[in-house]
Design a protein that fits this description.
- The protein is an all-alpha fold and 246 residues long.
- Helices cover 82% and strands 0% of the residues.
- The longest helix has 32 residues, at 46-77.
- The protein has helices at residues 2-18, 21-42, 46-77, 80-86, 93-121, 128-141, 143-155, 158-175, 187-192, 197-210, 216-245.
- It has one domain (2-245).
Length: 246
């Protein structure tokens, strides 16, 4: 099974390298947001700029997971090669794992411009051990978003996946407090925010990078969303398989 996962991951990474627009898109938006909002407004505050850097990294990860993954999966489903691969006896797990590992690699690459901007133009500060733990928290917190991307990719046609993933991405990021701290948002947003998966992922990253105490409800809901998204992704895969091959 491990060799199949490696094979699927290698194949998908090569595809990503040959058509790098998804990688460029995942890296561009958080880097541009850093330059437009973080550097001029919080760049002189070490804690605020460190927290904002973590938020921008999570935004890049969410972009790769929700938009990049859903569109890629939906487009792959329309290719003849995908139909052939689906008939092989390996089952869905190696493909799911390969896609998740490839998306994680994309996420890590997308953090590089954000970290460079934070280093050069802000007073954000972090030790190497905390940075490494923060990257682990980023990847762990991004799991439900990758599962959401798989769910959308197996449920929708490619054109629909483009629109739905974009419409879904921004409200989740805003409600999670990634563009503005939750404390400065309207009261009704503060009430809803802990129940959105992006808030839980953000709390983990902020806790590691700035030493803040994470919101317990938000972290618990992140786990709940992971389970729900996993069940939804599995259901969408079986639904698609049933419609195509039964």
């Amino acid at each position: 099974m491990s060799s199949l996962i490696v094979a699927h991951t290698r194949y998908q990474i090569l595809e990503q390298i040959r058509v790098p627009i998804g990688l460029v898109a995942s890296a561009f938006f958080p880097a541009a947001s850093m330059l437009a909002f973080v550097v001029p407004f919080t760049g002189d505050d070490p804690v605020a700029s460190t927290r904002a850097t973590g938020s921008m990294m999570l935004i890049g990860a969410m972009s790769a997971a929700i938009m990049g993954l859903s569109i890629t999966v939906a487009q792959d489903r329309e290719q003849p090669w995908n139909t052939y691969v689906r008939t092989l006896p390996a089952g869905p797990f190696p493909r799911f794992a390969g896609r998740i590992l490839t998306t994680m690699a994309t996420m890590l690459v997308a953090t590089i411009p954000v970290l460079l901007i934070a280093t050069l133009f802000t007073t954000a500060t972090i030790t190497l051990p905390k940075l490494l733990i923060g990257l682990v928290a980023l990847l762990g917190g991004a799991v439900p978003f990758m599962l959401i991307g798989l769910f959308l990719g197996y449920l929708l046609a490619s054109k629909a996946a483009i629109g739905v993933s974009q419409v879904l991405f921004f409200p989740i990021a805003i409600l999670g407090g990634l563009f503005l701290p939750p404390q400065v948002m309207p009261d009704f947003v503060q009430v809803v925010s802990p129940f959105v998966p992006s808030r839980g992922a953000g709390e983990l990253i902020w806790a590691v990078t700035t030493g803040s105490t994470p919101n317990t409800v938000a972290v618990i809901m992140l786990g709940v969303w992971t389970v729900i998204a996993a069940l939804a992704a599995g259901w969408a895969y079986r639904r698609d398989e049933g419609r195509r091959f039964s």
